[in-house]
UniProtKB/TrEMBL annotation:
The keyword Methyltransferase does not apply. Residues 1-22 form the signal peptide. Residues 102-275 form the Peptidase C80 domain. It comes from the Eukaryota. Keywords: Autocatalytic cleavage, Host membrane, Hydrolase, Lipid-binding, Magnesium, Membrane, Metal-binding, Protease, Repeat, Secreted, Signal, Thiol protease, Toxin, Transferase, Virulence. GO terms for cellular component: extracellular region; host cell. The lineage of its organism: Eukaryota, Metazoa, Chordata, Craniata, Vertebrata. It is found in: Host cell; Host membrane; Secreted. This is Peptidase C80 domain-containing protein. Pfam families: Peptidase_C80. GO terms for biological process: proteolysis. InterPro entries: CPD_dom (IPR020974), CPD_dom_sf (IPR038383).
Length: 639
């Protein structure tokens, strides 16, 4: 497994021959990231390592990864018994797609172009790929892989040379079962992806996985090579066995202990299968570059937070007995959020055709470097849900930017606080820009919900939600309501998934009441003291997120102040759930209303409740449930 358990960036380098297959399209799209116009050498030697050297490095570090005359340590693993042994390095041959054989050094001396592919819409991935492109812009092409299509973002789309370094940039991770993955792909999926690339570019030379610690993931490496062989692809893998980062010069930096180094080939591992299917590995010795004690680049590593693998209840049994509707609330929450392997994100913000004149106007100048920002666009409830899940499931190390009603909100990774930082506006309207800055250029420090709702009329909360998610056109106090919404709903739901379920129920319940001519207290539940995450007890430190937020492992053993705090949270959740369910169980409830409001998200249909409860009843704890969600809500509410 990746140690420590989590995500790290993966850069996969392939040596591929040219060729094009019309069955898998390559589309050229505008490149929205300014890669700059830095000076570069006009010529690139025909033999170089695009990730570790540059044209001026010749002779600087006398270490050639591909020189078989160097001292190497070689190991082999028998795929069936895991037997390790050492043996002298043997010259290796690569079996090409045309059945010709070529040594690795022969392949290396003939390539002169690198194709870089962005596999994920993630700031760290885009930044790393961009840095790699900028290192050799005259001999590189930058692509993005999205929904089965490769889009040319920058550089030549004409593959004029026979051999190419193709670099795939994405995150490494451990799945729910602890198995290593690349950009969410397991070894079998990744192998099929590589074969699909071959359908465009032709013959595969060498496949290199440059990643944090993946060189230690021998089971992943063995599986990948085995699947590739089963698909008639023979190759060698190049990997890293340490943490790494890509600096602004496009160099791979590796870390040992607390020291960052460049050109450290000792952190690289080469792996292949022998004729019997055993895994053979070797590693370079020595050849470490200089130490950079002040290096502050991002460690391309993201930790996967705790995530359940099977249906379970998260509120302690003691509180579920006291507040019986919590079982139903947990069933709804599970049905909304649980996805074992789904890591969907909201779409990137792209102005509509009639909004192409809009530009990001920042409250303070200069604004952040827009070349390194991805704006995620929250258009509907599904976008909101997947981003809440993403922030609860992944340990996001950088601040995220969201666009809601054309306003730009910054969510700070450290504490999930939200700031209004800008807005997409017409750059020609100077008066509107000045008014925006004068009105909202206030202290954006972390503030409480009570402070954020000052100046907001609580009965307008549902109107804001309807305008935003049904009409998709907010027209009143959108900037302030947006910040409040991102704090009271988005960040609060990241901390506790049950909050999002109650938000949906209370807003729908409010709309149902209004259809009957009643202004229900549900309409202000998320603006006043009824908000389920507002308590008179201080919040405990170091709380978990998502399913595991607002709970404790052992209620009896928890400190008394934490027991009191959690009891208050669950009591408010139970009360708000019952009120909303009572309203939605009315005879004249118009189901279509809730579907319209929330973009076809069916939060109250039979499947949402039954899917979790039916699965949960198969567990030892679930078998103890007698009534499940078939509660007499009036009876329970009046107890």
């Amino acid at each position: 497994m990746l140690k420590p358990h989590g995500f790290c960036i993966i850069v996969v380098q392939l040596l591929l021959a040219a060729g094009m297959d019309a069955d898998w399209s390559v589309q050229r799209t505008p490149f929205s990231f300014n890669l700059g116009n830095r000076p570069y050498l006009q010529m690139t030697p025909p033999s170089f390592d695009p990730l570790h050297s540059d044209p001026g490095d010749t002779g600087q570090w006398p270490c050639d990864l591909y020189n078989d005359t160097k001292s190497n340590q070689k190991s082999a693993i028998n795929g069936s018994v895991g037997l390790w042994f050492t043996e002298p390095l043997m010259p290796s041959m690569l079996k090409m797609g045309n059945q010709q054989h070529m040594t690795l050094s022969e392949v290396d001396t003939k390539h002169s172009h690198q194709t870089i592919v962005i596999l994920e819409e993630d700031p760290a991935v885009i930044e790393s790929a961009t840095y790699l492109f900028e290192r050799h812009p005259t001999t590189s092409t930058l692509l993005r892989y999205q929904r089965g299509v490769l889009h040319v973002l920058k550089g030549s789309h004409v593959l004029s040379t026979r051999y190419h370094d193709v670099i795939l940039v994405g995150h490494g991770s451990n799945g729910a079962n602890g198995a290593a993955q690349l950009a969410g792909y397991g070894p079998e999926e990744l192998a099929k992806f590589v074969v699909k690339i071959l359908s465009i570019f032709g013959h595969l030379g060498t496949l290199s996985l440059v990643s944090c610690n993946l060189g230690n993931e021998l089971h992943f490496v063995l599986q990948l090579l085995q699947v590739l062989r089963s698909l008639s692809v023979e190759t060698k893998l190049h990997l890293h066995n340490s943490f790494l980062s890509v600096n602004s010069d496009g160099q791979i930096m590796t870390r040992t202990g607390g020291d960052w180094r460049s050109h450290d080939n000792s952190k690289r591992v080469i792996a292949e299968l022998d004729q019997r299917g055993n895994l053979i590995t070797r590693s370079e010795l020595g050849c470490a570059g200089p130490v950079f004690p002040s290096y502050k680049g991002n460690v391309l590593y993201l930790q996967t937070l705790e995530w359940p693998s099977h249906p379970q209840m998260f509120v302690p049994m003691e509180l579920r007995k006291k507040y019986p509707s919590i079982d139903c609330l947990e069933g709804l929450t599970w049905s909304l959020f649980f996805e074992e392997n789904d890591r969907r994100r909201a779409p990137d913000y792209v102005p509509d055709l009639d909004q192409r004149h809009l530009k990001a106007i920042w409250l303070t100048e200069p604004g952040p470097d827009e070349n390194k920002i991805i704006y995620k666009h929250i258009v509907n409830i599904q976008d909101l849900l997947v981003e809440i899940r993403y922030n609860a499931r992944e340990e996001v190390t950088s601040d995220l930017y969201y666009v809601l009603n054309d306003c730009i909100y910054r969510v700070y990774s450290r504490n999930l606080s939200v700031s209004l930082v800008g807005k997409f506006m017409s750059g020609d309207n100077k008066a509107e820009i000045e008014n925006f800055r004068l009105t909202f250029n206030e202290d954006q420090r972390e503030t409480s919900l009570q402070e954020l709702r000052q100046g907001l009329k609580d009965t307008k909360f549902n109107d804001f939600c309807r305008q935003t998610f049904q009409y998709q056109q907010c027209n009143y106090n959108c900037e302030r309501w947006g910040r409040y919404f991102m704090t009271a709903v988005f960040s609060a739901s990241v901390r506790n998934f049950r909050t999002f379920s109650l938000f949906l129920m209370s807003v729908i319940g409010c709309e149902v009441g209004r259809l009957r001519g009643n202004e229900s207290p549900l309409c202000t539940a998320f603006v006043g003291a009824d908000h389920p995450m507002v308590t008179d007890q201080p919040w405990p430190d170091r709380l978990k997120r998502g399913f595991y937020g607002c709970t404790v492992d052992n209620f009896d053993m928890a400190p008394q102040n934490k027991q009191i705090w959690l009891d208050q949270v669950v009591a408010k959740e139970n009360d708000l759930y019952i009120k909303a369910k009572q309203m939605m169980n009315t005879v004249d409830h118009d189901e279509q209303t809730e579907l319209d409001i929330f973009g076809k998200v069916k939060v109250m249909n039979k499947y949402v409740f039954s899917s979790f409860m039916e699965s949960f009843r198969g567990t030892p704890e679930g078998k103890k449930l007698k009534r499940g969600c078939n509660l007499n809500f009036h009876e329970n509410y009046n107890q």
